[in-house]
Amino acid sequence: MTTTLASAVKPRAEDSFAISFAPLSLEEIYAKSDDPANGAVVIMSGVVRNQTDGKPVIALEYQAYEPMALRIFYQIAADIRLSISDVNRVVIHHRTGRLQVGEISVLVAVGCPHRSEAFEACQYAIDTLKHNAPIWKKEHWEDGSSCWVNIGACETSGENC
Known about the structure:
Strands 3, 4, 6, 8 and 9 form a 5-stranded antiparallel β-sheet that branches. The protein is built from 4 helices and 9 strands. Helix 3 crosses helix 4. Strand 3 (51-52) and strand 4 (55-64) form a beta hairpin. The chain is 32% helix and 35% strand. The chain has helices spanning 26-33, 66-83, 115-132, 151-157, and strands at residues 16-20, 40-47, 51-52, 55-64, 89-95, 97-100, 104-112, 135-141, 146-150. It is α+β, with helices and mostly antiparallel strands.
């Protein structure tokens, strides 16, 4: 699967994409990804953890360039459908603002007739989102220090500031 933004991709009515300041709901995301033709719904929930590389984290703060992030989300869904023809639903919601340890920062859900395709599509969606979407996080550490990092940069380099 390849993500390109050469042309504007329109979201499908049955899919759901959002950047939200409000808390994310697993129940809402499941409902949005459910379809009578599904044999599987795979949901990936990204949660704020209490450490990064052994350094105690007390909170994360997310910011996004929403218009471009949503275009990336639409493109992810289009790419999934190009490689997996029987995807019924794609749902991608991401939080912004300050989140405490244990809060959900991102939910990705894919509904398909079969589980293997649902798992593959869900993994592609979160991996591509983390590398391509203009979303940044600021890690707030227990010692009072903090640092802004690009999510994709964190994943590829494994480094903090």
